[in-house]
Specification:
The complex is a heterodimer.
Chain A (H helix, E strand, L loop, with lengths): L8 E5 L4 E6 L8 E7 L6 E6 L2 E4 L4 E4 L5 E6 L8 E8 L11 E6 L1
Parallel strand pairs in A: 1-9
Antiparallel strand pairs in A: 2-7, 3-4, 3-8, 5-6, 6-7, 8-9
Chain B lengths: L3 E4 L2 E4 L5 E7 L5 E7 L5 E8 L5 E2 L10 E5 L2 E6 L8 E10 L2 E4 L3 E5 L1
Parallel strand pairs in B: 2-11
Antiparallel strand pairs in B: 1-3, 3-8, 4-5, 4-9, 5-6, 7-8, 9-10, 9-11
The chains are: A mainly beta, B mainly beta.
């Protein structure tokens, strides 16, 4: 299970693009990078998962450089409702899913 | 994906009593997980529950305090025993139909007085 490092908190404004970077220097060959979002008083929600290059879905994009030692979650044109905690996890099929501290994103009007 | 429900959604309990939390999934899954999330903190894995076998507990969590049942592939219960104020927390169950991805229930908010 690769250790991850991400900022404790971030602030941004409505309409901006927000990029949250996660470092995972000891990522293994068979590890996937997964991001979860947690709103207050709710369980975490899967956002996006990738292995390399770029992945995009209706919620976010995930950018992974060639060395895979970091990844960036990109949220386009955020709104107040994107205020949440975002967790970066790096794991493979055999790992238990262990959560780090996450990044508290606060969107301002 | 999987849809997960938990009961109760919240409860207030007296010290020394126990609370049993139910977790129901809308599809059959092999692995279910129980987490605790204390106020303002990240999630901590309590145990992994596979149907037909004893739950596997993480360091710091014991069966006497957190007994778990897994009677079938869509249901599990977590009991928090001999409650103390330190057990006040949110308890979440989750499933992993695809092992790199988990789906979480809405959580059970417990307050111990």
């Amino acid at each position: 299970l690769a250790k991850t490092t991400q900022p404790i908190s971030m602030d941004s404004y409505e309409g901006q693009e927000v990029n949250i970077t996660c470092s995972h220097n000891n990522i293994a060959t068979n590890d996937y990078i997964t991001w979860y979002q947690q709103f207050p008083s709710q369980g975490p929600r899967f956002i996006i998962q990738g292995y390399k290059t770029k992945v995009t879905n209706e919620v976010a994009s995930l950018f992974i450089p060639a060395d895979r030692k970091s990844s960036t979650l990109s949220l386009p044109r955020v709104s107040l409702s994107d205020t949440a905690v975002y967790y970066c996890l790096v794991l493979n099929r055999d790992d238990k899913i262990i959560f780090g501290k996450g990044t508290r994103l606060h969107i301002l009007p | 994906s999987a849809v997960i429900s938990q009961k109760p959604s919240r409860d207030i309990c007296q010290r020394g009593t126990s609370l049993t939390i139910q977790c129901q999934v809308d599809s059959q899954v092999t692995m279910m997980f129980w987490y605790r999330q204390q106020p303002g903190q990240s999630l901590t894995l309590i145990a992994t529950a596979n149907q037909g076998s004893e739950a596997t507990y993480e360091s710091g969590f014991v069966i006497d305090k957190f007994p778990i049942s897994r009677p079938n592939l869509t249901f599990s219960t977590l009991t928090v025993s001999n409650l103390s104020p330190e057990d006040s927390s949110i308890y979440l169950c989750s499933v992993a139909p695809h092992q790199e991805t988990q789906y979480f229930g809405p959580g059970t908010r417990l307050l111990v007085l």
